[in-house]
Amino acid sequence: MIPMRMPWRQGDVLDLASIGSRVDSLTDLSTIDGGPGARLTAVRTQAQAFRREFIETGTPDSVTTCDLVTLPYPTRFGLFRASRAIAPFLAITNRLLVIRWHESDGTPRVLLFEPSDVELGRYTPYFDKLAGRTPDVVSKRMVTEHATVLTHLARLRIDPSEVDYLMFDHLHTQDLRRWIGTTAPQPDLGEQPTPVFPRAKVIVQRDELAAMADLHPLQRPWYQPGTYRDVPPEAFLPIDGSVVLGPGVAVVKTPGHVFGNQSLVLNTATGVWVSSENVIAAECLTPEHSRMPGLARWAREWGQEVVLNANTIETTVDQYNSIVLEKTLADRSQRDSRFLQFFPSSELTASWTNPGTSPTFTHGAIAHH
Fold first, then answer.
1. Residue 368 · residue 331 · CB < 8 Å
2. What residue spans of 73-223 are helical by DSSP H?
3. Where are the domains of the chain?
4. Structure pTM?
5. Which pairs with CB-CB distance under 8 Å and at least 24 residues apart come from 50-56?
6. What is the DSSP string of 53-82?
7. Are 209 and 151 in contact (CB under 8 A)?
8. Distances in whole angstroms, Cα of residue 280 to Cα of each of 74, 98, 311
9. What is the CA radius of gyration of the chain?
10. Which stretches of the chain are DSSP H helices?
11. Which of 25, 76, 351, 363 is positioned for an S-S bond with 91, CB 3.0–4.6 A?
12. CB count, 10 Å around CB of 338?
């Protein structure tokens, strides 16, 4: 297969100071002597050190969560090998997070985390094939579109021109052409889109951009690489590792689900939150407290403390270790201390059509003002 041409160069360099400060306490775990067990021990120590530093940075002005779409997802992916549910599919709700803060010089910032273009995301190869095999009457029952990114921003009185950063934990399913524009006409869109977010930069790990330039067969069902042919390279801010963006706002590299996976970490009035798609339910970080069929037993019998979201198993050990990093960073929920303030960017959602997959606990939203 011919490698996909991408709009960035391998040698591109970013001045990290332009988007915050590098996190030195979280290092590249591949440099740790020993095997994956040694890296797991190191990740706990590093996470504790970073957590102490991070809470001293302050809190953002506000964090708001916005429902975008609820859709089906294979149970064997979302709950890995742990679930004993009879339902082949479960439901997940994709949510946008809107984070606002001020820089030390008073400059206001707006970050959109997981601003998915739901309409174009459905053409991701896996979901496109699934839709083709699903009758319309069934699809309408299984998919609920709540509101668009722009509808939510209008409700929050945020003009798209005010948005500084777009960020995803990874670029599975994402088509960014409407958001950041293109350098050439797009036949499927009927025009050459002007950017909806004219000043926004896409924060992404350099590792993921490199992987997208020549996708492995295990990766191809989940990306839309062709949609990146004509996007402007200057719209991307490729980073290496973890960065504090502002008071109480950080990007932490969490490889595994994809090589360049990254998590959003927030310090709020209720403590530290972490958000990513490494797991699909808060109880997947503490499966011993789950009432879903199979999870607690599986964790006990296999001696594993987390349940992965495993549609792509690029580096399973690294994903496990990354989830433990997230688990170490997050505070316990004030609603139920058995569970952590981990907010899945795609959260498991109860549905009568999917017996055995109703979560024991859900966050539903983060509201920090």
1. no
2. 75-78, 118-121, 125-132, 136-142, 149-155, 177-180, 206-212
3. 18-368
4. 0.93
5. 50/23, 50/25, 50/26, 50/242, 50/252, 50/329, 51/272, 51/328, 51/329, 53/23, 53/25, 54/244, 54/248, 54/250, 54/265, 54/267, 54/272, 54/329, 55/267, 55/272
6. HHGGG---SEEEEEEEEEEEEEHHHHTTTT
7. no
8. 12, 20, 11
9. 20
10. 36-54, 75-78, 118-121, 125-132, 136-142, 149-155, 177-180, 206-212, 295-302, 316-329
11. 351
12. 15
Which structure tokens are listed for 49?
A: 């050190």
Tokens of 32: 């740790």
Tokens at residue 114, please? 């997981």
Check: CB of residue 222 under 8 Å from CB of residue 125. yes
Q: Tell me which fold the domain 18-368 belongs to.
A: Metallo-beta-lactamase; Chain A (3.60.15)
Residue type at 318? D
